[in-house]
From TrEMBL:
<dbReference type="GO" id="GO:0031177">
    <property type="term" value="F:phosphopantetheine binding"/>
</dbReference>
<dbReference type="InterPro" id="IPR001242">
    <property type="entry name" value="Condensation_dom"/>
</dbReference>
<dbReference type="InterPro" id="IPR020845">
    <property type="entry name" value="AMP-binding_CS"/>
</dbReference>
<dbReference type="GO" id="GO:0005737">
    <property type="term" value="C:cytoplasm"/>
</dbReference>
<feature type="domain" description="Carrier">
    <location>
        <begin position="964"/>
        <end position="1038"/>
    </location>
</feature>
<feature type="region of interest" description="Disordered">
    <location>
        <begin position="943"/>
        <end position="967"/>
    </location>
</feature>
<dbReference type="InterPro" id="IPR009081">
    <property type="entry name" value="PP-bd_ACP"/>
</dbReference>
<dbReference type="InterPro" id="IPR025110">
    <property type="entry name" value="AMP-bd_C"/>
</dbReference>
<keyword id="KW-0597">Phosphoprotein</keyword>
<dbReference type="GO" id="GO:0044550">
    <property type="term" value="P:secondary metabolite biosynthetic process"/>
</dbReference>
<dbReference type="GO" id="GO:0003824">
    <property type="term" value="F:catalytic activity"/>
</dbReference>
<dbReference type="InterPro" id="IPR042099">
    <property type="entry name" value="ANL_N_sf"/>
</dbReference>
<dbReference type="InterPro" id="IPR023213">
    <property type="entry name" value="CAT-like_dom_sf"/>
</dbReference>
<keyword id="KW-0614">Plasmid</keyword>
<dbReference type="Pfam" id="PF13193">
    <property type="entry name" value="AMP-binding_C"/>
</dbReference>
<dbReference type="GO" id="GO:0008610">
    <property type="term" value="P:lipid biosynthetic process"/>
</dbReference>
<protein>
    <submittedName>
        <fullName>Peptide-synthetase</fullName>
    </submittedName>
</protein>
């Protein structure tokens, strides 16, 4: 485009389309009206003599010269247009503030109003101004313009012309300005014309390829969580740059063959990489868009945004990163003319309401050196910074280079960032830039960017040396001597004093010694809750050993693994303890055995990433150091009452036990049934007057609710210590709002078993003070560092891995020296050789020196190729006001692919939750199943017990009410739904479609019921999809219904049977759809409609012999694959099923060919095979080809005539072929599946019956007589379009795709109805009519249990007539659903019969909904489709048809990802109209989900997204 020499010509018209950039701003204004986000202030201080009247005349002169400043934007005709007014009155005020005592403050208030007042794009004018006199010869001139008519380069044009108009006004002469050759409206027309054709398509293809797979967002660490919807509140921070810094950057650029901009951008990319940890970055940069002479003197919005993709992977040296940036920028700038919104539309990344698409961070360089200052006669102007209070992106990073000095200006979103954070980033960028300029060979991952402020907070320091104290049991013995009569342990009605507990432990210790236990041994404990656990722990320590606890309820296999790996000397059980302490054989006196505080105290096993638990060995000194460190914070004492709430096999129990026993306090052992009943536990806290409580956040959430119902408050509770899980703000808010504990203080403590329970502490004063998961500062005996992958400290606010050093670091993992060496290693402090523990936990430093927890570094799960952080989904769920708690897990059964399940506690129903999430998260982050629970199950440790979570059900859209089926009919249907849909616990209120049902599954349910002797009409699923309403329509089966069961050759007319050739298994007439497909193919041999090719990239092992066997087996199993057509030899066209047909398997080995050559060969083969027409008289009408690309990658191409396979049949054959290939590859003797019980000939008989049905004839006559199908295009229809043109494939943005099933579930319909309603609305826009008559593809499969087993073409196209007047979006969706239900009994009547009643028999448009469940089985198998779009789409597809507009809405069966495929066989439908249809379809879904009660006929279509 930019290479074109054709000039822009002056049209002189008063209206014009919007330029691409203007369309984006217009849409954003409609999206968020009444904001000043795109107000551009031009504010100058002037010194000198000034004539206010001349200033105003000069401004009006500029406005009169430039049409852009007299333009308004109207959508009166549906599509927005710019309208040039002949003249406008510019609001301009003058204020003399010289008499004001504080003129500057008064001026600031006036400027605040003029700058931040929104513009009305439809009414205009789109600029305003004011002149303020603040002193003698001191002025402030402000002009504010909307960005839609102005860009940065407009400023210099404006200043130059304002000065000239002012001089002309002063001297009463005409301005010395040449007439403008064109105006902005001329440019907008020219740009619109250029956005079509092959050249523009090539440019778009460049950006599609360039940004393919690019991340949808930059994960910059923010100060606040991102709002659910994007906001534009902002401010600007300015940081001066050191003198000479940019000169040195230009010097480096010259040496490296780059530009100064590239050097600065590369440094900024390195900064973003260091802050995000991302290697793949997309950073926006503005380009002027004025590469034509005609545009140089114009005011207007010409600027374009380029999405620069920068690869920072492999930790390159800065010099190498600069090379990458240079090469990428040069190539991108060669394609800069493509409008940014067109790029976004083509790339279609996941859209999120919370961020701008594709680009959230913008980098710009502004060279103002040598610029002349504005002069208005004697008055000299200087820029005056002004803050609009808005931000267009998350960050706009501008490097400003001017004669007065260089600076960084950062416009930032204040809902995300604090000013201090942005200033710190700017200073780090300066530090990083200094470093790479000094040494361009330094790696970007290691170049120092820490500022002095960072160093003061994040620099690692060695932990203090802590002198060894007594062993735990020795310290206990001293306490027992001081408080002999105080109660040490309470368990129900049982109480032990310190003397009694000590004596029992001593007896048991002597028993252990008699059993051979010595210093350094390990003793296993397998004990029920009670005092025996405490006695045994003390006894083992007194005997010189370390205890290894397991819960008796743990599986025997786990107990054996723990005790075996720990190499225990013996295992104590309850009977052993009871016998020993009751025996008079053992002395109750202290043993006083030799030992050291370095001796091991316990080994507690934690989960291991390999699935095998790992035992952490902790010494006495680790525990005593912890309690010495917290003594000043908590002041624990003899009056404290603690609970032993947690399992003694969880290290929180160590804190609870020794917190009591080392201070003379009382330990209340909580019975397990009480611990699992929050109400009973809350009563125990009151009854036992507990003062110190330790809880996980999950347990606290349940206790909070329980305590709110207590008749008396928890008056004695003084500390609630939280740990074990991440504490979230909602936990804290609920506690302060609801808990009855007036004196209790909350302390959030982070820790892990390997660092002895607790590492950091943070006291929480109020809910308002805890907006993030703050874990505080390291305890005095420890040190914490937060490091990047290179082991260097990360800056303030940047997430890294926590490592912990000091007296709490455990001894290591028992029996695992390799893992111990890996995780317990020297730390980041030079000269410190003590081990530091690498936690694997993520955190970041806050400016005040506290730490903020950010989850595990390995929490992510991978589902359908997406990396997913469950915490992100959990946070979104907890933003719902009616959800109290939740947990998100990845669930997988042996026979299903992994999927996300959200368990939610609260009042919100699943449909409500799904809709809520769909508006906030990409589709792949919306859980497949929403499970309501009364409360989350907890482990004995107080954490969420994931193993106790109920089995997930497909509860999408189910309400909170649940009534079990009551009648026999309800139970029968519920059982069938359960079998077909895989849904348990179905209630009377459940809706078939909300549970995942669709038309195919309704056939399966009807078939299942028929096998049990009952009938249910298919239309009943549509009219009464709720179980309680559907059940009354169930009836006893009286006849064969649709199960035709014809014998071979039974459908051949007797007179024709003698002419059948030998070697047949069967023969029957062709269906009407088959005949129509053959007709259209013969009528248009160039386009070859209905000859299909689909070529899939496959990942998995390929075995040619097994594949050939599988192909032979599948062809033999399905008669339609052995079918040919005979159009002339019989009394009616027949299809012949041959007994023996071979489908040759062609295999080509491309493993030695380069990747680009492979792609070319794949495409060439697919299209070459498609071009070879089938001989319809010769079976098979199928070809299969394989191209081997790598050891585990191959291309599978299938060419078939559509007349033998519909979409469901094709994907089922495809899946069956791959599954049998895998089975035969693994076991050549694998038996084939049984032959299908239903065959295509049964459907042929049904169609004949439908054709003869008087009821159906009357139905269609009544419905369609005189109806005229909707016409598309601009003229007489032709069939001149080739199969390789007129096809658009568009993946729906993930957030938009997720709205389809959510909206469907909310309205009790299927996703098909929502997509069909969007199609009808888009067609109404395209055709300019309020009544749409479109074709609808319907499925005519048999309604028996085997109906889905048959392969063939079970399709029909029926006309659907939809008047739109008076319809809201909700009523439209329900109306098309109702129409489909009415059509269902008559869906098999051939279109050729229905067309007799139409005023015109030709349908211009047709709609198909595809959700092929067979492909879902491949999603996570060993062999799967490689497809980044939906996960199920082919690499090459050509499926031409005969419609002027054929639309297919395709849903991935394993997710909500969706694609729209639009195909036109008619050149009368232009490419622009195809694009318009797609935009309107997308917009229709957006409108119906955001404003369901809005009227369909008044919507504005998809202008903002085209």
């Amino acid at each position: 485009m930019s290479a074109s020499w054709q000039p822009i010509t002056r049209a002189g018209e008063t209206t014009a389309p919007l330029s691409s950039g203007q369309r984006s701003l217009w849409f954003l204004d409609r999206w968020a009206p009444g904001t000043a986000t795109y107000n551009l202030p031009w504010v100058r201080r002037l010194r000198g003599r000034l004539d206010p009247a001349a200033v105003e005349r000069a401004l009006h002169g500029v406005v009169a010269r430039h049409e852009a400043l007299r333009t308004v934007f109207s959508a009166a005709l549906g599509e927005p247009r710019q309208v040039v007014r002949p003249e406008v009155v510019v609001p301009f005020t003058t204020h003399d503030l010289t008499a004001d005592p504080d003129p500057e403050s008064h001026a600031a208030r006036l400027l605040h109003d003029v700058v931040r007042r929104p513009f009305d794009l439809e009414r205009g004018p789109l600029l305003r101004g004011c002149l303020l006199r603040t002193g003698p010869d001191r002025w402030i001139l402000a002009v504010v313009v909307h960005h839609i008519v102005w860009d940065e380069l407009s400023t210099s044009v404006f200043e130059r012309e304002l000065s000239e108009f002012y001089a002309a006004a002063e001297h009463d002469r005409p301005p010395a300005l040449e007439p403008l050759p064109v105006q902005f409206a001329d440019y907008a027309r020219w740009q619109r014309e250029r956005m079509t054709g092959a050249a523009f398509e090539r440019q778009l293809t460049y950006w599609r390829d360039r940004l393919d797979g690019a991340p949808a967002s930059l994960a910059l660490p923010t100060d606040r969580r991102r709002p659910a919807t994007q906001t534009f509140h902002g401010s600007t921070a300015t940081v001066p740059l050191p003198e000479g810094l940019l000169d040195r950057a230009r010097d480096l650029a010259r040496r490296e063959g780059a530009t100064g901009f590239m050097v600065l951008l590369a440094a900024f990319a390195a900064l973003v990489h260091r802050h995000t940890g991302q290697d793949d970055l997309v950073i926006g940069t503005p380009v002027a868009g004025r590469d034509r002479l005609e545009l140089e003197g114009l005011l207007g919005y010409f600027v374009n945004m380029l999405a620069l993709r920068i690869d920072t992977g492999t930790q390159p040296a800065f010099r190498h990163l600069l090379e990458r940036v240079r090469d990428g920028v040069l190539e991108d700038f060669d394609h800069q003319d493509v409008p940014f919104d067109a790029v976004v539309d083509r790339v279609l990344p996941d859209r999120s309401g919370g961020r701008s698409p594709l680009v959230q961070v913008v980098f710009g360089y502004h060279d103002g050196r040598g610029a002349e200052s504005l002069r208005l006669a004697d008055a000299v102007a200087s820029p005056m910074p002004i803050d609009t209070g808005t931000a267009k992106f998350d960050l706009i990073w501008s490097v400003c280079d001017e004669d007065a000095g260089a600076r960084v200006e950062v416009e930032y979103n204040t809902d995300l960032f604090d000013e201090a954070t942005v200033v710190r980033m700017a200073r780090r960028w300066m530090r990083l830039l200094e470093g790479v300029l000094a040494d361009p060979g330094v790696g970007i991952g290691v170049v120092d960017l820490l500022t002095d402020e960072d160093h003061a907070v994040v620099q690692p320091v060695a932990a203090p040396r802590v002198p060894a104290g007594p062993r735990l049991h020795e310290a206990f013995e001293r306490v027992a001597a001081e408080h002999p009569g105080r109660t040490a342990v309470t368990h129900g009605d049982e109480h032990l004093t310190y003397t009694e507990l000590n004596a029992r432990a001593n007896r048991l210790a002597r028993y252990l010694r008699s059993r051979g236990v010595e210093r350094g041994d390990r003793v296993g404990l397998c004990l029920e809750r009670g005092p025996a656990q405490v006695e045994a722990v003390l006894a083992v320590l007194k005997a010189g050993a370390a205890y290894v606890p397991v819960n008796p309820a743990d599986p025997a296999e786990r107990q054996e693994v723990v005790f075996g790996d720990a190499r225990v000397r013996l295992v104590l059980r309850d009977e052993d303890v009871a016998g020993a302490v009751a025996s008079g054989s053992w002395s109750p006196e202290n043993l006083s055995l030799a030992g050291s505080a370095d001796d091991s105290a316990y080994v507690i096993f934690t989960s291991g990433s390999t699935g095998r638990p790992k035992g952490v060995e902790v010494a006495h000194r680790n525990v005593t150091a912890l309690f010495d460190a917290v003594a000043g914070r908590f002041a624990f004492g003899a009056d404290d009452v603690w609970t032993a709430f947690h399992s003694y096999a969880f290290d929180f129990s160590v804190w609870e036990t020794w917190g009591a026993l080392l201070h003379g306090g009382r330990l209340v052992v909580v019975p397990l049934p009480v611990a699992r009943a929050p109400e009973r536990f809350a009563e125990l806290l009151v009854r036992e007057r507990v003062t110190v409580l330790s809880q996980t956040p999950s347990a606290l959430a349940q206790l909070t609710s329980a305590s709110a119902g207590l008749p008396v408050p928890l008056e004695d509770l003084r500390w609630v210590v939280l740990g074990g899980e991440a504490l979230q703000p909602h936990h804290v808010a609920a506690w302060f709002e609801r808990a009855k504990a007036p004196a209790a203080r909350l302390c959030n403590m982070y820790g892990i078993t390997e660092t002895t329970i607790h590492v950091t502490a943070h006291q929480i004063e109020s809910a308002h003070a805890f907006q993030h998961s703050v874990i505080g500062r390291a305890l005095p005996h420890l040190s914490v560092a937060v490091l990047d992958p290179h082991g260097a400290p990360v800056p303030i606010g940047v997430v890294g891995e926590m490592v912990v050093g000091g007296a709490g670091v455990a001894k290591g993992y028992v029996g695992n020296p390799e893992l111990t060496a890996q995780r317990f290693a020297p730390g980041p402090v030079p000269g410190d050789t003590t081990p530091w523990y690498r936690t694997g936990d993520l955190a970041r430093w806050r400016p005040d020196g506290t730490l903020e927890y950010h989850g595990r570094g390995d929490d992510q799960v991978k589902i359908r190729g997406f990396r997913i952080e469950p915490g992100e989904i959990r946070h979104a769920l907890l933003a719902h006001p009616r959800i109290q708690d939740c947990v998100v897990v990845a669930h997988q059964d042996p026979d299903t692919p992994p999927h996300l399940v959200a368990y939610v506690v609260g009042e919100a129903g699943p449909a409500e939750v799904r809709t809520f999430l769909g508006a906030r998260l990409p589709a792949h982050l919306v859980p497949s199943v929403i499970m309501p629970l009364d409360r989350l199950p907890l482990t004995s440790n107080g954490k969420v017990d994931r193993r106790a979570l109920p089995r997930p059900r497909a509860d999408v859209g189910r309400g909170t009410r649940h009534t079990p089926p009551e009648s026999d009919a309800e139970r029968l249907i519920a059982e069938a739904w359960q079998e077909v849909l895989g849904v348990d616990d179905i209630g009377r209120e459940d809706n078939f479609f909300s549970l995942g049902g669709d038309s195919i599954r309704s056939v399966q349910v009807a078939g299942t019921l028929r096998e049990r002797g009952y009938e249910l009409d298919l239309e009943a699923f549509f009219t009464t999809p709720v179980l309680a309403e559907l059940a009354p329509q169930l009836r006893r089966a009286e006849g064969p219904a649709d199960t035709v069961g014809q014998a071979p050759f039974a459908l051949v007319p007797p007179a024709d049977r003698a002419f059948l050739p030998p070697g047949l298994d069967d023969a029957y007439p062709m269906t009407a759809m088959q005949l129509a497909m053959v007709y259209h193919m013969e009528a248009d041999p160039g386009r070859r409609p209905y000859q299909n090719v689909n070529s899939y990239r496959m990942s998995g092992d390929f075995d040619e012999k097994a594949f050939a066997a599988a192909l032979t087996e599948v062809v033999h199993r399905h008669p339609v694959l052995r079918t040919s057509f005979d159009l002339v030899s019989f009394s009616e066209p027949m299809q012949l099923v041959h007994r023996d047909v071979s489908v040759p398997l062609v295999v080509e080995d491309l493993r030695g060919v380069g990747e680009s050559a492979q792609l070319a060969r794949v495409t060439d083969l697919a299209l070459r095979e498609w071009a070879v027409a089938f001989d319809l008289a010769t079976a098979p009408l199928l070809r299969v080809l394989v191209q081997r690309l790598a050891e585990d990658v191959y291309q599978l191409t299938l060419v078939e005539h559509h007349a033998i396979l519909d979409g469901w049949s094709f994907t089922s054959v495809f899946a069956e072929l791959l599954e049998r290939h895998a089975a035969l590859r693994d076991d050549p003797d694998s038996p084939p599946p049984p032959p299908p019980a239903s065959l295509f000939r049964d459907y042929v008989a049904l169609e004949a019956r439908a054709k003869a049905s008087a009821t159906s004839r009357e139905f269609w006559k009544r419905r369609m007589t005189g109806v005229r199908p909707t016409r598309l295009g601009t003229g007489r229809h032709t069939a001149g379009r080739g199969a390789d043109t007129g096809v658009l494939e568009r993946t729906l943005p993930a957030a938009l795709a997720a709205r389809v099933p959510s909206f469907a579930a909310a309205n009790g319909v299927g996703a098909k109805s929502v997509a069909l309603a969007a199609h009808v609305a888009a067609i109404s826009r395209l055709a300019g009519t309020h009544e749409v008559v479109t074709g609808l593809t319907v499925n005519g499969r048999l309604e028996d249990g085997a109906g889905t087993e048959a392969r063939g073409v079970f399709l029909n196209t029926v006309p659907l007539r939809v008047p739109l007047d008076g319809h809201t979006w909700t009523s439209l969706v329900r109306a098309v659903h109702q129409q489909e239900s009415e059509i269902t009994p008559h869906r098999r009547t051939p279109y050729s019969e229905i067309a007799r009643h139409l005023a015109d028999p030709t349908l211009d448009c047709s709609f198909t909904f595809n959700r092929f469940h067979a492909l879902g089985r491949l999603a996570e198998g060993r062999t799967r489709i490689v497809d980044p779009r939906l996960g199920v789409e082919p690499t090459v597809r050509r499926e031409p048809n005969h419609f002027a507009l054929n639309v297919a809405f395709v849903q991935d069966p394993a997710s909500d990802r969706s694609m729209l495929i639009v195909d036109s066989a008619d050149t009368a439908v232009t490419t622009g109209q195809l694009h318009g249809y797609v935009a309107d379809f997308f917009a229709a879904i957006q409108h119906m989900t955001e404003a369901p009660d809005g009227f369909v006929t008044t919507w504005r279509g998809g202008e903002g997204t085209r």
